[in-house]
Inverse folding.
């Protein structure tokens, strides 16, 4: 019965979006639309022709001149933003309703009094991945306590194993999609560098063209180089910040689970001499 209740709680918990490939495709489509219909709108260019130079001071037209690399970097940027929002809600759901430090202290306080029922009620209020793991450990605590066929060492090992298994089921969901963000930390910068190189090649090609310097081609090449550099660096920086932030949150959750798990084992060992 307790197991069924636990499964129901898990069903209400937001664990994140598993179809990250669909998110990337959707971001690419959106990036193409933004690039062609917003950045490439005729109103941003001289004589309403996107083949001409952008109107002086028009940032969107300048971004459009970044070339085909721009929507690729935009896709990476939108993917980071989307997955960051998705991870925020997933990890917030995993933490549960209350603050984790307070939850840990309340569980430790209940365990020190030998109040398993009170500890279980605290987990029911907290919910989330942390609450699920602690609930599993408390259920196992009660089970091994009634099983007189097990030695004390076997009982302690059973509780430890339950904590490890419950943790192994919960934690992978927290780091879901983070590898994609980690990849974009490097990929975004590399795409910006690629756009810069392509832009500089166009610039030097215009300088080497017959009949003198083509100022339009030269400015387009420089724009492509600078725009892609800026976009690439911004995307990579945002991805680094996002990855480190969520990794820190997961480490905090892991630490809290380990602390409570250790407290449960110590409480059992102290009360069953």
């Amino acid at each position: 019965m307790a197991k069924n209740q636990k499964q129901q709680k898990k069903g209400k918990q937001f664990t994140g979006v598993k179809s990250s490939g669909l998110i990337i495709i959707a971001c690419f489509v959106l990036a193409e639309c933004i690039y062609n219909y917003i950045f490439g709108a005729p109103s941003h260019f001289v004589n309403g022709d996107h083949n001409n130079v952008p109107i002086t001071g028009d940032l969107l037209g300048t971004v459009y001149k970044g070339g085909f690399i721009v929507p690729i970097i935009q896709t990476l940027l939108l993917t980071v933003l989307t997955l960051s929002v998705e991870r925020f809600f997933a990890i917030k759901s995993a933490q549960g309703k209350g603050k984790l430090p307070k939850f840990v202290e309340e569980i430790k306080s209940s365990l020190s009094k030998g109040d398993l029922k009170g500890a279980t009620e605290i987990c029911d209020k907290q919910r989330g991945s942390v609450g699920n793991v602690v609930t599993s450990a408390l259920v196992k605590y009660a089970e091994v306590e009634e099983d007189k066929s097990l030695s004390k060492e076997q009982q302690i090992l059973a509780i430890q194993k339950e904590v490890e298994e419950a943790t192994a089921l919960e934690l992978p969901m927290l780091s879901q999609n983070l590898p994609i963000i980690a990849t974009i930390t490097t990929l975004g910068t590399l795409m910006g560098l690629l756009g810069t190189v392509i832009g500089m090649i166009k610039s030097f090609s215009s300088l080497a063209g017959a009949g003198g310097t083509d100022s339009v081609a030269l400015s387009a090449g420089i724009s492509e180089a600078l725009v892609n550099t800026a976009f690439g660096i911004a995307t990579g920086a945002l991805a680094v910040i996002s990855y480190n932030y969520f990794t820190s949150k997961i480490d905090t959750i892991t630490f809290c689970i380990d602390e409570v798990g250790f407290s449960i084992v110590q409480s059992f060992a102290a009360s069953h001499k």
About this structure: The chain has ten helices and no strands.
